[in-house]
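Before relying on records like the one below, remember that each one covers exactly one chain. Contacts with other chains, cofactors or solvent are not represented anywhere in the record.
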Amino acid sequence: MKKKGLFIASTGQHVGKTTTCLGLVSGLKKRFKSVGFLKPVGQEHLLTNEGVVVDKDVILFKDYFSLLDPYEMMSPIVFSKGFTKDYLDGEIDRSALIESLKVCYQHLKEHNEFIIAEGTGHVGVGSIVDLNNAQVAAILNLDMILIVSGGIGSCFDSIALNYALCESYGVKIKGVILNKVLSEKKQMIVEYMEKALRRWDIPLIGAIPFDLFLTNPTIDDYVNLFKAPLISGENYKIRHFTHTRLVATSLEVYKTLICPSQLIITPASREDIILETIKREFEMAEKNETLSAGIILTGILPPKPSVIEQLKSSNIPCFYTPTNTFNAMKMITSYTSKLKKEDTARVEEAILLVEGHIDFDRLMSL
């Protein structure tokens, strides 16, 4: 590989760019003495323990892979609230932003043998401030790997749109990685996508199977979604669930529906359902079986203090939101969770899955 890094972009939101970058960094660390991670332009930011504002993905990669580069060198630009308006009002100097990008990338080049730069959304994201992914890749003189959801027709169409923008800025797409490919269609999709990509002489360097667990939020994800603190089960806030069930039936029917690894959504007034769930968790604990329930309480009336105390004694992760049950379910079913460092089970699953389905030999020969 001629260049010391790659720019990773995708054809849209929720395609799996961060998931793929985890696998890429892990695989590259086995081939290079040191691998750097750069998030040139970030949108969702957090405050580190050192008081530095950085993109959330930088915290994930730095902490998980024990990367040595300073936070500020890994996240040069963060779009804070009002950034776009300030830029359009002429209050932000683009040349200063570009200089920051170059300084940070140069630092990473000097301290690492290879760098993965993760873009933000599809290639055109950031155009409003003249810093879309194609522009940033061009500024850093990086070739691009494009991540696209597994498929053929519509997926290739999205590649074509992103390819055109990259071409206009002189950015070379060095390879495509398909993500979330249905296993039963993988062979066919790979065969025809490779044929389609030949017109641009772009290789397909990976086809990552769909993994349901990677789409599975934790109770803590829902806490952030509803902006409602846990009232119990803080130690189990990263718990995942195999089943999510809206419970509005009778207690007798509910008893027949209880199963392991189940998140239930029910009105806080349904104390019979809550207490039965608590009872089952205690019974499982007595049998040394894995505790696995989670509860989201809804409705105008909050849970009674006596119920909250029993929930706390059970250690079931639970929170209350005044949202009605219908809207709560609507929010949950339309929600896509993002990877974070605390969710080590999903991070490790992502790395194992992605790393095992990327042709690193082909990638390194580009």
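The first strand starts at residue 5 and ends at 10.
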